[in-house]
Each structure stands twice: as structure tokens, then as C-alpha cells.
Amino acid sequence: MSAPEKVDGRSHRWHDHRIARRQELLDCTLAAIRRHGHDIGMDEIASANGVSKTVLYKHFADKKGLADAAMARYVETALVPRMRDAMSDYLDEYHLTRAVISAYVTTVATDPDIYIYVHNNNAVSGDHDVITAAEGLIAELLAGVIDDTFAEREFSTVGSMPMAFAMIGAVRLASHWWMYDRTMSVEELVDYLTMMVWGGIAGIARSGGSAARFASEPHPLTLEG
What we know:
Layout: H1 9-36, H2 42-49, H3 53-59, H4 63-88, H5 93-110, H6 112-125, H7 129-152, H8 160-181, H9 186-206, H10 211-216
Helix pairs in contact: 1-2, 1-4, 4-5, 4-6, 4-7, 5-8, 5-9, 7-8, 8-9
């Protein structure tokens, strides 16, 4: 029997130190973006962190790498916790839907410079992987809620994942539009998104979550009452 491999304690501690240091740099970077705006440059970010750009580039390959990491950190520390809190509230289905939409919209609206900074740097590179990953994480959380809610009512849960992605995609793109347009208030945006998403959920519920049943039914556009 071979002897167990020795764990290099110093290497492990150094790895933990680098992770902690990277998180510190990212938290400081997010604070600097909030303070100086989305047009902030690497010189200002380095200065806010109290380091040189050379030190900054030891942790992040380039400006886009920093933007990607900042977005991931923001999603981890701000967006996902608020979305999770909204999903864990004991609310009826309608108010839960509104709470989840409101959590996303208000979080992004509170930090417009961070959203624009990340989006602009991803748009330049043509790489939207970090945004896609963030959407995927949130969609998985939402799909779990849809699964549980539908299962309680004995609805089909087969479509939970595409429904979750569709909802998140609609809310994100509408929030992106609002970020650059601002022709309505945040509350109005939440109202319209809730109306659209809840209308979809109500239609799904009437068909018991079954796409086949939904397709077989008539769908007249009628006004009631």
C-alpha cells in the first residue's frame, strides 16, 4: 500500500491568500466603479486598490478579465443573494413573481455604473460568457422554484428550465433597455414585466404545464369584464 501524498501546507495557504486577495481587489474595484462611474480606467482602479497596474495584472489578465471577475463577484455578493431572498419569501405565486422581478430590476438599477461597465467591456470583446453564466445561475434557482410550485399542483415540470431562462432573459433585456432609456420609473418597469410574466404563468397554469395541451386549445385574444 502506497503512502498517502503529503499536502503542501504552504501551497494551500498561498492559494487561499491569493483567492482572498483577489476578492479584496474586486470589492475595491466595485466600490471604485460606483464612486467614479462606468468610464473608470485601469489607472484609477489600480489607484483605488492602492496598487500598481502591474500588480493588478498579476491577478487579472486585462481590463476585460477584470470586468468579467467584477461581474462574477457582483452576482455572487449582490444579485444572487437578493434573488434568493425574494424566492424564499412566503408569498403567494403572484406576489412571489413580482418580488423576484423587483429584486433583479432594483438591484441592477441601484448599480447602473457596474452594469454598464461590465456590459461595455464585454461588448468590445464580443464575449458575453460572464453574463450568460450569471443568467444560468439565476435561472437554475428560478427553475427550482417553478419545479416545486408545479409539482405541488401536479403540473408537468418538463418545461421548468426553458421557462426560467425565458423569464430571466426577458427581465434582463428589459432592464438593459431601461438602463439606457429611462423613459419610465423602476416601479413602472417592474409593473409591466410582472404583467407580462404573470400573464405567461397564468396561461401555463391553465394548461397544467403541458405544452401539448396548450397547443391543442384555442387562444382567442378576448377582453373579459
